[in-house]
Amino acid sequence: MERTIIGFLFFLSLVSCQEKTSFDSVAEYRQWIYSEESGYLQTVEKEGLVFELVYLPQALQQNKMFAKEADSILDLSFQLKISTTEQEELLKRNLGSQESYQGRIKQLEFQMERLFYAQVPEQIKPSFSHYENFRGIKNEILVHVHFSIPSQLKSDVQVFFKDEVFQTGTHQFNFDQNKILHPPILNLKAS
Question: In angstroms, rounded to a whole number, what is the distance separating the alpha carbons of residues 69 and 74?
Answer without folding.
Answer: 9
